[in-house]
Amino acid sequence: MGNLHNTIWGAIEEVRRYDLAQYEMLSLEELLSAVSSTNNKIKEYFEYHSEYLANTAM
What we know:
Helix 1 packs antiparallel against helix 2. With 58 residues, the protein is mostly helical. The chain has one domain (8-57). The radius of gyration is 17 Å and the shape is elongated. It has helices at residues 8-16, 22-57.
């Protein structure tokens, strides 16, 4: 499945197409939440540090 998708979101959406048990769906929801939270923290980091990073790159 990893060869079919270039993002974690695509892979998760592909897994959702299968007939999953409730605990498996809950695990997927936890995974989505963790990925989303991580993405938000990375975005937040770069928003706060973008000026510093731009100045040190020169």
